[in-house]
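**Sequence with structure:**
===
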Amino acid sequence: MPTATTELTGLLLVDKPAGITSHDAVGVVRRITGERRVGHTGTLDPFATGLLVMLVGRGTRLMPYVEGEPKVYDALIRFGTETTTDDRTGEPTRASPMPTDAAIAEGIGRLTGAIDQTPPAFSAKQVGGRRAYAAARRGEPLELPPSPVVVHGWELRARDEETLNVRITCSGGTYVRALARDLGRLAGSAAHLGALRRLASGPFSVEEAVPLDELAAAGARLRPLRDAIPALPARRLDTAELGRVVHGNSIAARPGDDRVALVDDEQTLIAVAVRAGDELRPALVLRDA
């Protein structure tokens, strides 16, 4: 637990179980760490499991700089029935015969690359300030405009008469349950998402994550904030530069500097800076002056 004279901050990779919301998982981390400032970089539906990338303490300010693409999911698509939520938690809305392998392959082809995707009726999308899921619960579903997403690829892992097990790599903002729904329709059938597990988000893997139910026993071992932005090149600050940066002042840029992670002698992240002419200007400072 942090004390009045210490501050807990860092990166935490959590393996979320099924049956709780991402916000619930944040609440668990808050209780374990004693730190109110906890956030995640991408929501998982309650029935889904897998990777949640979390930032703790002042590290939450680093969220806009955390790379979160592509996303990788293992998904179980169940054919024959479409549901109100496009997943197994919803009520059946229609049934249809099983599709052929050829029809599934054609549908996957049409759902690969840059596509326009209509979000699920039960989603957090807003129209005119109204949440889609709230309107859907009242029996007044909103007309949701399609959103551009990118599906980089589908890896077929198993197939039986009623289900398809696939690994999907896609952009942020992609609803995998909408992919399941649309695959059923394109294949001349009906489908919904039966299970979902997030395996990766940008450079982060669920293999590095701690199961949520083990956090209390193992303790929330936070990784350094520098680990949250591994793609940014690091520049070590000398004493004079460090003094300027912690006060939010610019330093001279070097050849190749564009957006960089500024670190001290111990490789602790001090700031993120961007180039402006011949200067590096701190866009985010994480250490107090």
Observations:
- Helices lie at 22-33, 101-110, 132-137, 176-186, 212-218, 239-245.
- The longest strand covers residues 147-159.
